[in-house]
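ESCALATION

Customer reports they have been waiting on this structure for their group meeting. Please prioritize. Original submission:
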Amino acid sequence: MMTPYAPCRRLACRALLFLWLAPAAVALAGGEPYGRDFAREGARWGEGGPPAVLVPPLPAAADAPPAAELAALRARLAALEAEGGPYAGGLEEPLAALGRALAARGRYAEAVAAYRRALHVLRVNDGLYGEAQKPLLAALLGIYRAAGDFATLDEQYPWFYRVYGNGQPPLTGLRLEAALAYQRWQREALRRDLGNGTRRLLALIDEGAELLDRVAGEPAAAWRARRDLALSQLRNLYLVGDLVAPPPEDYPGLRDPDPFQRNELFTDDPQEERLQALRRTAQGDGRRLLEELAAAAPDPEARAEVLVALGDWQQWHGREGAAREAWENAIDALKRAGRRERVAALFGEPRELPDNGVFWQPPTPAADAPRPVVAARFTVTERGRARAVDAETVSGRDSARIGVVRSLRRLRFRPAFADGAPVATAGVERFYEVYD
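Update from on-call: job pushed to the front of the queue and completed.
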């Protein structure tokens, strides 16, 4: 079944210039990528990694077993190998225990070796896709992230996803969580510039659309699955708006396009042509995606949550009238549902957009150095723009405040609402952490 918000599978256009993180792309395609260079102090989003139900946290150093226990594990392994050989069934258990113990001590390379050997033993005895290897794969993902080895983490994620169903129905429970985690990782890999960005972004959009097709094809599919997959695809479209720059002739005043010379500027790469088509339709695709989701919502509160996301999407693209209409409809729906506390939580104060972490780069566990913190004071107008911005550096390099001030002036906000209408908010005070 073809979805109307997946044009990359049915549209083609002429060539493009694909430039990563080009400033003009932000100006023409979407708003400031909030969360990429700075965010409110202590901000956290689900984009920071898979849920703990799939990849539990690594054991703490305080839980590391004593040296005598490590020696006992190694002796047990040697005895099992002597009795049954290097691939004996049962070796995976002490190998995994050894891997956990080494990870707790921060000896990541040795822990990886133990877990990989445990996986090999399991695959020899139980097959390539046996259920028993799931916790071992999850532990490996956690170790690679803790060690900052994102290239190997990227190599391992497809296998992890495949063991959890590879996005095939039924998309419920851990299968759904794995599909969402895989999408999150692909977005993080794009932010980290791992591998071929063009191919990865296209594959991400295609996979997101296919997952939505599978859910739509199952009448009994839970609302949560459709909602979460749709919002995941929306984040993918946010990345399109930020990462794909228009071709030179789309920059006003840059030059007069010559149709007879135009092709000399481009590569005639079909993948890049598809990306340009996506860039030009991304705003409308995201709007239709959310409108269809809102129409299918099972109750007013669920519909309101989608309308908030729709308003944020429209606002980020500078469509202030459409954003206000969506937010007003969300407020009305929440009031009808008797959820005035949700109205206060969502619209009681201005909110930086996008408020979903799609541009956020999670800090690595090894990054212990404190980041600069900037205190800012400003007014957010009823149109969701920061004015009268003033800032000072609280800690770290003094120049950090300059970038925050410039970015705040370009940033788009969801304004505060009072009595169902947007209002200006003076004296907004925020502490921002700056990502060097």
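Sent to customer with the following note: The mean pLDDT is 87.
Escalation resolved.
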